[in-house]
Amino acid sequence: MRESWRWFGQFDTIPIDQIRQTGAQAIVSALHEVPYGVVWPHEAIAQRKSEIEAAGFSWDVVESLPVHEAIKKGEGDLSQLFANYRQSLANLAHQGIKTICYNFMPVLDWTRTDLQYPVENGGTCLRFSAVKMAAFEVYMLHLPDAADNYSETTLSDAKIWFDSATSEDKSTLLHAIMSGLPGAVDRYNLDELHPVLRRYEGISHSDLRSNLKRFLEEVVPTASELGMKLCIHPDDPPFDILGLPRIVSSKDDISWLLEAVEEDANGLTFCTGSLGAGAQNDVVEIASRFAHRTHFAHLRNVTKYEDTSFEESEHLGGDVDMVSVIELLLTSEQERAVTIPFRADHGHSLLSDKTMTFQPGYTLIGRLRGLAELRGIIASSSRRFDIAT
Ligand code: DNO
Known about the structure:
By secondary structure, this protein is an alpha/beta fold. 43% of the residues lie in helices and 15% in strands.
């Protein structure tokens, strides 16, 4: 497995030359400044690539090449958007960047309600609270039917939270919920969110699946011809929020997705944290089923609660059996004779992290700690495989 580190380019507070000290060899990056749906220009790709290479890295993975909302909604004439996506793929392949992560989550990307939740040892982590999400959906946004998705206890706790929340608490919550959208892309306030959500009215899970299948049929053949690997990122959290359908949340979803277009170029970003947050998911079993179509891995851990809340735990703590997942990925690498790039996904805010500002979750010391722990597992598991073969 190849160690990578996500770098947000000009939106990152960590200079790329400092990343060398983490020991990672590869960079995961994106042109966050390019609006969704627009072709990624040759020059901008070349510029980013040369910055990465000048610092001694290779640019191994694009995360993400975003899918325009109109494609997710199946809205209007999409031929230009599909053509643009294919052109961005071709421009990237031309410069040797061939592993492309994307997601198909409507409107939002990963979603948390707390960006600085205290952990026992003094650091902070990202957290998703079902109570706060219920307060947001039911009492702040007044979404019709939202209450149906929560238990009575969660709803009454949500009301208590809402009644005692200051306007600052509410805007902190809105900010946390919007923080999954990296770079210079749309973020919404409460008034703006309503019409955006309304445009998904009537779009069911099965409609969204059809739209994803259509997208795959439009772009996977090009990716295959170019020798590229597309790898979809699972939903985070792996269940519906804000009344929007999510369709890459479980073993069955992934199975459907990989069969929808049976080509190796239609693959998966195996995100242990996203999948691990779903009560329905046995992450080790999912890894054993789909390691063979995994082209990129995000390794992090979560601790789940009954009411669907979860928090990001230490990389080797939490509910995901990380050692087993890593062993399955290493085995798959051997079987396929490939190398899977991975990154320590997110990290707690620890020590000097607290004096800096970061893209939420993308701390320096916290991620470095996670990477070091994962590196240890990979080294010891690899040695055992070498002995066995
Ligand atoms: C969160 C990330 C996601 C991921 C996108 C991929 O930290 O894992 O934002 O980049 O979902 O499209």
